[in-house]
Task: structure prediction
Amino acid sequence: MNDKTIVLAYSGGLDTSVLLKRFILEGYDVIALTADLGESDAIAGGGAAQALQAVREKALHLGARDAVLVDAKQRFVEDFAMPALHANALYEGVYPLSAALSRPLIAQLLVETAHKYGAGAVAHGCTGKGNDQVRIELGVRAIDPNLQCRAPLREQPLSRPDAIAFAREHGVPIAHTAEKPYSIDANLWGRSIEAGVLEDPWNAPPEDAYAWTASPQARPAQPESIVIDFSAGVPSWNGVSGWQLVAALNAVCGKHGVGRIDLVEDRVVGLKSREVYECPASVALIAAHKALERVTLTRDELRFKAQCDDRYAQLVYDGLWMSPLRTALDAFNASMAARVSGQVRLQLHQGSVVITGVKSPLGLYSEALATYGNGDAFDHHAAGGFIALQSLPLETLAHAAQHPVHA
Ligand code: ARG
Result:
């Protein structure tokens, strides 16, 4: 293990470029690691490959010993997004955890790259105020506690003017774009937008905060219906599954403005923050998956699973992806996912996704039992006996209150 080799999670932006250069000046051999989690493909667009190659070349140009670009789209969707889908994972009931699910994968990639290059340390550009530092560092420690994990922007916060001054002095290219009004993080499972004018929760999110979801004026006037197939919990649409399914759903649901979320959420480090998200595919898939579970799982499973699902979302949010409780909950979910097969029809219209049909070969819904029409198979007399026994404790209580026994 080489103490002077460090793997840096590298986005190509100003902050991580400055960090890369600073580590080199400190005498480190830097390996820049960039993960493709489908940010640019999320909307089934193009140009992602070239943009990421440019990030890699920038790192090499800045003096990195090597720059590693990992296409992690499939791994992200299969190993992180799908288990989260089976848990219907929504933090505080609404946020599909897009950023939170990506950090343990980034931690895995940092550790794998460190092992490959014999590096003794890894580093990231998260600040000391957010959730992402917690998620990456808990992930790294859980996999290899011998690796040092550096967070230079936590150790010494870097203002934008200082970053620009350092960049000018050391030949770090600065993109000549107007100052970014928001802090953005994106992958196939969703896009998060924070800071700037959004810091005041009374400010409505400006339309320019959104990139994947159409504005109310630009949405199609007519509703559109799509049918998602699930086979043992695995979704597909028109035969497309995996990350390509998520990309395709982001496009079709985003066109109708589905998946906008505006949330004042509780961060791991104790403060509340206002976050805006657009998560077209994940919002639609979770709604569809929940609807199919309602038809295929028993009442007791559904009631108990709802509590587990909420706990699952907390674990993911809090950076505890690597915890054995999460693995155990995955096993619990898998035991039911085997029965979650069928089709769900979704209607997309003007920002909303509405379930308009569910069917399953393994469904527990029985029209013969439920019908108020002809062919009713339900035993109405049995309900009388059920009520007599179910009400027994309550009746006993009421009798006792009416006729107290004075000892
Ligand atoms: N609040 C969200 C979360 O904690 C989004 C974080 C986005 N990260 C970022 N570096 N902008 O999961």
Q: What stands out?
A: Residues 99-100, 130-132, 183, 185, 192, 194, 275 surround arginine (CB under 6 Å). The first helix runs from residue 14 to 25. DSSP finds 14 helices and 13 strands in the chain. The CA atoms of residues 293 and 340 lie 6 Å apart.
